[in-house]
Amino acid sequence: MQPDTLRAAALQSHARWRGKIEMAGRAPVATAADLALAYTPGVAEPCKAIAANPEDAYLYTRKWNTVAVVSDGTAVLGLGDIGPLAGLPVMEGKALLFKAFADVDAFPLMLDTKDVDEIVETVCRVAPGLGGVNLEDIAAPRCFQVEQRLQALLDIPVFHDDQHGTAVVVAAALLGALRLTGRGMTGLRVVVNGVGAAGTACAKLLLSMGVTDLIAVDRAGIITGAPEDIHRDLALRTNPRHITGGLAEALAGADVFVGVSAPGALTGDLVRRMAPDSIIFAMANPTPEIFPAEALAAGARVVGTGRSDFPNQVNNVLAFPGIFRGALDCRARRVSEGMKLAAARAIAALVADDDLCETHILPAALDARVSAAVARAVAQTAKDEGLARL
Asked: What are 30's strand-pairing partners?
């Protein structure tokens, strides 16, 4: 769909919908008896039960299935800091996908503050009614601070999808591409371009998967771990060959490019510097670091983007609904690294060997099998790691 056509259609649709989600009742209120049970006086009984045993909230209320999509509107799509009100359509869309793909009840919580303390305090104060927290479109480095503090303070899953959802789907795509090209993690050379929220999470998860030769690159060049480097912790775990310079130097002989950076950051000449049959994940949105045709012409074998109009869409909807479904079902205390890896492997496994090819390394975003498979894998891993309460 052309940009002008898409703009008109999107605005017309949103005006017609007047919001993509709504509240729906589950209990009947057709008779006086219904009212007596759902509200006064009957509602006092579950209140008393929960006061005596807080765990009963998971039995008598919708807490068990409720997720807040929390945002301050500072890093919305590729639009940047447009504020909480302008970011609301995205969070409504996120809540819609939660329900459509995993039957999770989610609602937007738009916060008119950029202060870490205020964000953390607000979420903690509303947490009694929540089964989980999905942080969304909060700019780095604030997103790291908010997530870490909430994870320490709350006993429910807190998951920043821009970081970890992206990382899980990138990991799944890499597993598929490696299976196709006959590569393994040992000796694999990976370059992550863009070290914001998503790039940092991608790098860390790939390291957890066994990648040992990973170079992270930001606007200033290769992350080196100098004392003044804000990414010093990541730098200590990357660039084992001590390469210096910029993206061109990092890509020399590289097998994999993971781009969470800017349109046009990768060129055909840079792809030609990479190893034969290179793997390109160009995920800048809406315009990728390089378009698939150019990357393939320069020698890449597998190309994925964040777009639905090209093959191999690296789409977070493959991850976050199932991850939360699994975490909620087993009442996990948090989402661990192991749970993320389990999600990635479950996604990759849905592409059968007979179907695996250069244009099909991931299941489609609308594949109905994905959320259930991810949920099962995540819940089982939570149980194995002692993080589940059911």
From this structure: none
